[in-house]
Design goal:
mainly alpha, 3-stranded parallel sheet, 3-stranded antiparallel sheet, 12 strands, RNA-binding
Length: 489
Amino acid sequence: MDTKTSIKTRFAPSPTGYLHVGGLRTALYSYLYAKKNGGTFLLRIEDTDQKRYVEGAVESLIDILKLFGLNWDEGPFFQSQRTEIYRAHAARLIESGQAYRCFCSEERLTKMREDQSNLHLPPKYDRHCLELSKEEIDKLIAAGTPFVVRQLIPTEEIVFNDLIRGEVRFHGKDVDDQVLIKSDNFPTYHLANVVDDHEMGITHVIRGEEWLPSTPKHIWLYKAFGWTPPEFAHLPLLLNPDHSKLSKRQGDVAAEDFIKKGYLKEAMLNFIAFLGWNPGTEEEIFSLEELVDRFSLDRVQKGGAIFNLEKLDWLNGQYIRKMTPKDLGEAVLPYLQKESWYTDALLSRLSDDQKTRILVSIQSRLKTLAEAPALLRPFLLENLDYNLALFSNEKMKVDRAGAILAIENVTKALETPIDFNSEESIKAALVSVIEKLGLKNGQVLWPVRVALTNEEFSPGVFELILVMGKDFALTRLHAARKALDSAQG
RNA sequence: GGUCCCAUCGUCUAACGGUUAGGACAGCAGGUUUUCAUCCUGUAAAUCGGAGUUCGACUCUCCGUGGGAUCACCA
């Protein structure tokens, strides 16, 4: 058997309503590290704060994790169902003198902190209740005085090795006596986290940098229980453009929002993985499987990374262009269905072959899936409400009369026998019209393209005719001609 | 304010003492093209500052500076 203890990581979010992209990245790195090393990835829900309970938050968290394919091997475990375990552990610590009951009122604590702040001292519990005698404590308990359990922080230096940052040291005199059990008898994060990580056999705690300052408390807890602490890896933060910790205030931060906006989960994962990590080569397109294969913690960056979407747009475009028409069609459908003009009938009258051609024609123009409906509209809608101003174009040197001339001649050309299944033969037919009229390409093709789509931007004319087919293209040309004529009269 | 962490182009980053400091995104300029996009080519753009160590520092040390995190009966 393998003598190395097998690796086990966990993702331990608190269910506050949505999955933050920073959380998604933490989950991803934990997942990658476990999978890369043939280990186990565990999911634990840290729901010990009764006041912060949000309806449905757990379900949506689980759904989104699954959507991204970050499948866990164990769990989900719920801390709210394990409260007795934490209480028993706290009691052990009180017994061994490594924790103590604190009966201080909120008022006293507030006043204490104010005084400390006035003296420019760091706010820290003054150990008032540590002085209490056994008799006094018994009396207070008997009187039903609410209390918390505080960790007695040793006055010593502590040094630990962070897998990303190297040696980090703190001194006990700077660390506050952390509350372990709240007066509602629920544990705080610190206690529950340490007890669970130990009991669940977590070997590597991979979490955000914001936890670095509380790591000494955690290590002292392990020591107090007589346990060996796990390895720690504190990930650099994801930042707002103003370099503060990434927050809701400055844009979307919920992983789900990005899916809604038409980003592919593969692109998101790829993008997020590269915010703080890189393979050391110049490759940048990685599937989840490839990330698993290449990931290592020692290539994780120390400094925070600004969450800047420009590159995500590009990456998403890359992924879209790699999709098969079938996959693209399926991916685009939900966005299409959100459009007010969309009906299933519009789609069902198209053949599979036509659908494929349409999708291929718009594929290179897509940065996000959400942009698809606008590009699809000219192919799906039966009647277009022409914007006549579009037919004239200064740069293309076409005016309305020119547009009518072009549309008229192209209509005629398309009514002659051409192979409508060949873009080349369509092109040949139109080129001969252009030559016959002695015009520039744009003078004919621009108005025809507008006639076919009523859009400023679209796929090219030859491709449009190929995709639309003879009848549909001619219907459009007639309609455009009619619109132009009636406006003139 | 205390403690801790961090620092290469605008952004994400490469270079684990020796490179003209590399790549990508975004930008700009061209090319292809009927528009837009794709695609192709080119271009501009960085080692926070100062001391040391060294034959030689982006890289090691120290001091500054700047930014960030954290200091709850939230996680």
